[in-house]
Amino acid sequence: MWTADFRGLTLRTALQPIYSISHKRTVGYEALIRAFDNDNSAVLPLHLFDLPSSEAENLLLDRLCRYLHVRNYSGIKDQLNWLFLNVSPRVVTSGNHSDSFFGQLLKKTGLPAHRIVMEIVEQPTDDPARLRDTVDYYRELGCLTAIDDFGAGHSNFERIWNLSPDIVKLDRSLLTRASNDHRARQILNGMVALLHQSGCLVLLEGVETRDQVMIAIDAGVDFVQGFYFQRPCINLGELPHAPADLEDLLTEYKKRKQITQDPTRQLVNFFSGPFERAIDRLRQGASMQQACTTLLEHPAVSRCYLVDDRGVQIADTLVSDFTIRNQDPRFRPLENTASADWFRQQYLRQALDQPDNLHVTTPYLCVTGAYMCVTLSLAYNHQGTLKVLCCDILANATQTP
Question: Residue 80 class from Cβ within 10 Å (0-12 exposed, 13-18 middle, 19+ buried)?
Fold first, then answer.
């Protein structure tokens, strides 16, 4: 194994595996620098990177680390997986890439550029244009690019738009919050979906517990990395090649998902009878108030409303007595929904596409009162016209202990 010296410290490469959840195996390794003093005692990386006293020394240390990592990884009998390398924006924008240092290094070691993922650490930079030029340089070499520690510090979607990375690594702080706060978990899921829509693969780092793996799987991330699976290893001759227990983890996730989906299925079974009776009465000419009395008497039901085939609400919403007693006065501007257009809502379009079937949503934030609910919807034909009966149910009424 190759080592290097810097300011009296011995530098070594440590590798930590990165796993694809869907493939259930290792797809890459992140290279991390480890420093040791003359007594072979470990020196914190933070202290190592505080040692350079000039931009030139910063650049030297950065290149020394990358040289060491590429040299060591090129000697490992692995002809497939990625090597993730960190590079600071401060070093990127202060260094001149025209000397083709990294391209020459790859050529000398024989490591193909397509197996390198260059990670841009989330730090402020005074020269975003230069940063973009350098990222383009790595991309032209054939490397993949990634943004590291996204979701913490100076990270924002502006850098996603400007750099168009192949992979985004989410900071572990997002996972920590999601472990303790259901709303943070929903935000994490939404962030992953948005990054996917932006054309980025998503890696969640800092996974340390089994529950955090479940959160990562549920969020839809592509890759995971963390102490739960494997700590960074400096003995590169004994890298762990055994697959993680992702098979068991996915099986457990499927069981958990089955349990959490049961309440919505129970809702369909429970409300199908009252829904059909309400629609029969509407077809017979009853008013909404007359048709939906039984539904509105149920303590979990917050409101009922009728929508036409264009998605526009017919008349105003019927609100249960419980909801009236507990309405938040701060959201009164949202209460009147006569002629509201709900066509953008998936539950409405789904009902119109599949008439006579009762549909149920996953929990979402109701715009009419800013509370979490699920919506039941059923489209029916009345005098040659499709109409949709909708019923909002308080989300906490669907949660199991």
Answer: exposed
Q: Please give, one letter per residue, the 3-state secondary structure of the chain.
A: CCCEEECCEEEEEEEEEEEECCCCEEEEEEEEEEEECCCCCEECHHHHCCCCCCHHHHHHHHHHHHHHHHHHHHCCCCCCCEEEEEECHHHHHHCCHHHCHHHHHHHHHCCCHHHEEEEEECCCCCCHHHHHHHHHHHHHHCCEEEEEEECCCCCCHHHHHHHCCCEEEECHHHHHHHHHCHHHHHHHHHHHHHHHHCCCEEEEECCCCHHHHHHHHHHCCCEEECCCCCCCECCHHHCCCCCCCHHHHHHHHHHHHHHHHHHHHHHHHHHHHHHHHHHHHHHCCCCHHHHCHHHHHCCCEEEEEEEECCCEEEEEEEECHHHHHCCCHHHHHHCCCCCCECCCCHHHHHHHHCCCCCEECCCEEECCCCEEEEEEEEEEEECCEEEEEEEEEEHHHHCCC
Level-2 CATH architecture, domain 262-398: 2-Layer Sandwich (3.30)
**Cα–chain-centroid distance for residue 224?**
11
Domain ranges (residues) in the chain: 4-244, 262-398
pTM assigned to the model: 0.81
Q: Which of 20-29, 283-292, 369-378 has the lowest mean pLDDT?
A: 369-378
Cα–Cα separations (whole angstroms), residue 42 to 179, 226, 230, 322: 31, 20, 19, 63
Q: Dump pLDDT digits (tens) for 185-228.
A: 989 999 999 999 999 999 999 999 999 999 999 999 999 999 99
CATH fold, domain 4-244, is TIM Barrel (3.20.20)
